[in-house]
Amino acid sequence: MAAEHPLLTVQGLTISTVGPNPVTLVDDVSLSVQAGQTLGLVGESGSGKSLTLRSLIGLLPRGVEVSAGSIDFEGRELAGATARDLRAVRGRQVGMIFQDPMTALNPVMTVGAQIAEAPRFELGLSRKAAYERAVGLMSEVGIPDAARRARAYPHEFSGGMRQRVMIAAALACSPRILLCDEPTTALDVTTQAQILKIIESLRVSNELAVVFVTHDLAVVAQLCEQVAVMYAGQIVEAGRTAEIFRAPRHAYTLGLLRSAPDLVVSRDRLHSIPGLPPDPAQASRGCRFAPRCTFSDALCTEGNLAPLPLLSFGSGERRCRCVHQDVVARSVEEEPVIKDA
Fold first, then answer.
1. pLDDT category, 338, cuts 50, 70, 90?
2. Contact of 50 with 100, CB cutoff 8 Å
3. Any signal peptide, and if so, which residues (predicted)?
């Protein structure tokens, strides 16, 4: 059962480059996640998903900063927090699984020593207790013969096993929130399914809040209760996954769903979205998806000198940044998107 109040609340998050002519990369993003809930961030490459995720614990690349907005973790403000304050949150309160475990893991340390490092320094455990905890976590995430494998190095593991090591490391200090940055992208389908099953099992058993970044809509459908669709640095649609997948209200969401072979109603030819995402350095008017949208007209651009707001409708849980929501909805009614919708 999800908690009444969100563990994490992000309001108006804006991320920009640093310099005399800053470029906005993530624009006015707001989201929240509760204990025991999984939120998916989905969109094309370059949409701002990973930047948004990394900003939550101050892991933005050099030359990029949070220029506006609030990141509230249980009453603690993380936007603009000092390095010391962020270190107190990372690992102990918020764990993170990265996309490529081979580059995230230290190649000259055994995996057991790497997993044990955080409990030693963050929780104050003895070297022996921390190592025993590491072995236990490796066993929990499905690594066979964990005591022996803990003495191995990252290159001695397969991609799927390395990702299990990353999950164990992320959970080493029993965090409240787990951030997942496309953790299954480089894995085969069978291994991906195993990793997703592990994450879901850990979410349930530990009442974890999970924020899951991916471009794979089938993963979102399987794992995420809530979803936020990002395009060109903005959230264009957000709400309950089942509702959005069944009846999208933004043309970009509709295009993504129709492009997903695992989800769509069978048809002779797979749909594709024409064109390319806009250059972040080019200021846009109105809807940023308008140049690629089959529903767009003058109202989408000429009539809106400022970027379109993210409007709530229905129960308030559903949000959409589109002036033609009703037109998109009618299109979905005429031609259902998802199998058995």
1. confident
2. no
3. none
- For residues 178 and 159, what is the distance between their CA atoms, to the nearest angstrom? 20
In the chain, pLDDT over 70 holds for what percent of residues?
Answer: 93
Inside any domain, residue 51? no
Q: 225 and 240 in contact (C-beta within 8 Å)?
A: yes
Residue 141 lies in a domain: yes
Q: Which domain-ending residue is among 129, 154, 174?
A: 174
Mean pLDDT of 92-102: 89
Q: Pull the structure tokens for residue 118.
A: 């955080």
pLDDT of residue 320: 92
Helix (H) or strand (E) holding 13: strand 8-17
Q: Let me know: does 167 contact 136? Beta carbons within 8 Å.
A: no
**Structural domain count of the chain:** 2
Residue holding tokens 């999800």?
2
How many CA atoms within 13 Å lie on the side-chain side of 148? 3
Domain residues for 263? 251-334
